[in-house]
Amino acid sequence: MHNHWFRNARHRLADANSLLPLSLLGVVSGFSCALVILLFRYLIDTPATIWLPDHSPENFEALPRWMHFALPLAGAIIIGVFLSRMKPENARTGIVHVITRLHLDHGHLPLKNALVQFFGGAFAIATGQSGGREGPAIHLGAAANSLLGQKLMLPNNSIRLLVGCGIAAAIAASFNTPIAGVIFAMEVVMMEYTVGGFIPVMLAAITGTTMTRAVYGSAMLFSIPPIAMSSLWEIPFIALLGFVVGCCAALFMTVLKTALRYADKPVLPRLALAGFITGCCALVAPQVMGIGYDSLNAALANELSITLLLTLIFAKIIATAASNGLGMPIGIIGPNLLIGACIGSAMGDLGAELFPELASNHSFYVLLGMGAMMGAVLNAPLAALMALLEFSSNTAMIFPGMLVITIATLTNSELFNQRSAHQTVFQHIKLLLPTDPMSLALQRTSVASLMHRSLCESSQQVTSDEAKTLIEKDVRWYVIRDDANKPTHLVDGLDMMTHLENHIDNHTVYLLDDSLKIQPLAELHIQATLKQALNKMDDKKVNALFISGYISGAYPDNGIVTRDDIVQYYQTPQSY
């Protein structure tokens, strides 16, 4: 009974159109992801609350001046020593690692990398590195769900969706913004929008947000007063804000590219250099240390001087981009929100000085700067717009938000010819991801949903009595195994039955007879997607695969998938 249920559940999850089981999977994944994110946030906040002045987890500014330099440098060296003892492939972390594993390894994220991200990311932020917790949270949420799917032996298409659910739940749990979490997962990481993907990802974001609100309450991270655009005469000034943010985003990419030149150097000197750069920037502006949400709230409240704003903009850009490019296990979303907030605050001060009768509330420009910087650096305009909407709880932000985010993104990409931070890394390592429509469509479906289970397996030669038994099977395919019990050849059922009937009187019947239309066969595990099946066929130069797998470790679930099956599936319109 249990095995029958498990088999049916796996078969349904193998189909990209099975919304109900995939939706249930989204709820479970949101719950597991939220647990990991809450634990990660606790690991960051608790030690910092204990030892930082006034028991504030971000009060690095109140530390003695010498610690502004020594703390990030010492923390970076400790992380470097730890990572230098590991294999390079086990030390890869962050959103780039998640995107790579999703599109090249079908969402299979290793446990070792997740542990490095969990402890390394928390230690980096606690020691004042200029980074955010959202990037690590994305990795941890994706890894938690990927490991869950691997443990349950789910089809790879379901594991990919689990990763997307983990990303959405991580963003939603980090910012209390479920819509932005969903859009970010689909726009930046999964790089596709489908109904079958949207609903499970939305449920994961809802679940993650619910659990976070149960622990931390429903209040937003940032204190934003009621705001709106005062006059249409502000449109040129908002466009100018977008242009300035786009220029700063291009500067961020330039620093990131420069740091990436040293990405192949030994990890210890790389991270020591990152800590040194952060320490130098912290001597100029201590607010550069840590995530910087306290400084962001100060910018919203117009409590930072214009000198400090300008200093913090450039110091945060240099420290964050350099640290990220040199391999520090930190995120860039939170710091870029702070950079955008400081730009918006400075521009708000300028607008109030030049046009006091037209300028909107100071926080209006701060919020626009946050969204514009996020959209330009991540090349995620829709996710940034949704974040603006949820941060402000005000639909009046949509119109000016669309304008400023669009101009900032175009300035960065078209005027300065820069890509997003993640695309910049992929360009540096010369990695092309299979994100064309055909590849994405084939990765959404498992071979288990398409394979023919009407088959019979046999050795290369059988006795007369065994031949009679094979005739009685009346199956679609006959799989012939070699002496090592490997499936090597495939014969059509009707052709095989005719051959057996013609030779039934022989003492021994050879099944690899020249009169038979026999095609070579390769083997693939049942977890694989149709994309993996097509790659396997091309690699082995065959047109059919023997799909092998087991239910609960004991009961076989085998089948056949042909190239024609995959072509027909891709060319058939899908219904939802």
Helix content: 55-70%
Strand content: 5-15%
What is the total tally of β strands?
11
Average pLDDT, rounded to a whole number, is 89
Q: Globular, elongated, flat, extended or rod-shaped: what is the shape?
A: elongated
- Ends apart, CA distance between termini: 30 Å
Q: What class do helices, strands and sheet pairing give?
A: alpha+beta
Poorly predicted segments:
none
Specify Rg, calculated over alpha carbons. 28 Å
State the strand order across the main sheet: 1-3-4-6
The count of helical stretches stands at: 23
How would a textbook summarize the main sheet? 4 strands, mixed
Q: Explain this structure to me?
A:
The chain has 576 residues and is an alpha+beta fold. It contains 23 helices and eleven strands. It has helices at residues 2-13, 19-51, 65-84, 94-104, 111-126, 134-151, 156-175, 178-190, 195-216, 235-260, 267-284, 293-300, 306-325, 333-354, 362-378, 381-392, 398-415, 421-428, 437-443, 464-473, 493-502, 530-540, 563-571, and strands spanning 455-458, 461-463, 477-481, 487-492, 508-510, 518-520, 522-525, 544-548, 550-551, 555-556, 559-562. A hairpin with a 5-residue loop joins strand 3 (477-481) and strand 4 (487-492). It is elongated. The two termini are 30 Å apart. The mean pLDDT is 89.
